[in-house]
Amino acid sequence: MSRKFLLWGGLLVGILVLLMGGTAVAHMVNEAVYNGEVARNVSVAGVDVSGLGREDLWEVLDEIEAEWGRIPATVAAADFEITTEMSELGVQIDRAAVTQAAMAVGRDDGFIDDFRSWLRSFFGKTRYVPLSFELDEATTIAYIDGHEEALRVSPIEPSFTGASGTIVVTEGLDGARIDGAVVAGALEPVVTADLPPYSVAVDLVPVPPITDDTKLAAAIAHAEGLASTPMVVRVNARNATLYPETIERWVVSDWQDGQLTAVFDLDLVQRSVEGLLSDYDDPGTPPRFNVVDNQVSYTLGAPPKECCGEGVGELLYEAALEGGGGLVRLPARLTYEDGGKAAVEALGVKELIAEFTTRHNCCESRVTNIHRIADIVRGYLIEPGGRFSINDYVGRRTREKGFVSAGVIESGHFTEDVGGGISQFATTLFNAAFFAGMDFESYQSHSIYISRYPYGREATMSYPAPDLAIRNNSPYGMLLWTSYTGNSITVQVYSTEYFDVEQTAQSSRRSGFCTHVNTFRSRTTPDGEVLKDSVFASYRPREGVDCNGNEIPKPD
Known about the structure:
Helices cover 30% and strands 30% of the residues. By secondary structure, the protein is α+β, with helices and mostly antiparallel strands. It folds into 3 domains: 31-152, no CATH class; 214-344, Roll (Ubiquitin-like (UB roll)); 347-539, no CATH class. Strands 23-31-30-24 form a 4-stranded antiparallel sheet. It starts with a helix and ends in a 17-residue tail after the last strand. The model is unreliable at 13-34 (pLDDT under 50).
């Protein structure tokens, strides 16, 4: 080997030694300069953290976590599922671990490997530090417990009712919920082993009813005590007794102050008592109308009082709590709070809509009866849709009621009976009702035509039949007002005019020896509807003869 070759070889080796030595020195100088900082070309979650100290690195990790913390995380249990963000469930970056890993890059793998890593950093080779996570169990538990309402099936407490007449119990049922500690326990190994998003399934935790057998028995004993004693109640100045078998049907269970107890079903009590004491209603007195010079006025009566006013359930429950003894005064309910004024005004009884007068001889016994029945009927109010029957309202005409014997038609013959002559009142009322637009539910003409009455438009009376019954089919009340003189009787109808009434025609035909008469009427309503009807009369040729011309025997 030549001397020249050795010289150049030695020179080359010296240069390499110098280079390696210088590089190693440079590496050591670099480590000295960057001590406590992240090495060159180090990345965490795509963020270059080269040269950052621990505090600066933690700030970067905070920024990274703000983004990663929004990644979904799902918890499922049976039919429940809730999806939220990782941060809400307490999943967070393990800053200490990530910081330690970042600071260890190029430092903790031995001098040779660290030296090689340092050399590669000059050639743009990025060194990646993986994220790691940890779980804050307190945050997990707080989040789950804070959403308990959505993650819980409440238990069904036992209940009971006395509606059937005895206390019947319905057993309670367990509920279920997602438990925060269970979720934290299931999430911990997932967080430390895997990358997000996270999803865990857990078992539900049973939630038993609060009411145990002892508490249930106490509530039932309380229920039975509420219905153990009869209660005496007073309504509208009358007393009534409510017995345990009735009271027990009102008992139901209720949840008060976190405890099962027994109460009354207040609505049921109200309905029950109203039904039981319906006969204890006070009918009150109706308003009284008066007519002077065709002007209507009225005086309010006492409004009806019904059983019962509000609050009956509360009163009886308080009485039961006190043992059921003593008298319980129940409030009455006024049908009309204003005494009935608004109801009376709504009737629209304000003007004369129809009247009719018939005449008679003075001073006959029949006039006494006409005046007497007029006095009885005067002021009668037929409410909208209401019906008026002479026989129902006046009853049998007797001497005790002020009626006397007078002429009547019986079996086709003129004779006498107590109350005779009131057919003239019936005829007068019939015609007033005809022109007021009322309907006729029951009527009968005289068997023999009497010239003082309108032909074909009249009515006779007896008891219990024939009767004159009329119905008010208008939306307003109709007041019957009667007046008389020594030789006339007048019936007026006061209301609000609803029908425009007109007698449109009359026809008659012979049937044997009798004459049948139809009288036609039209009634026009405010909206233009025209109602057409007719009334019927049948007349025999004379007293004591039927339609076949045969003689009719006189009554005994």
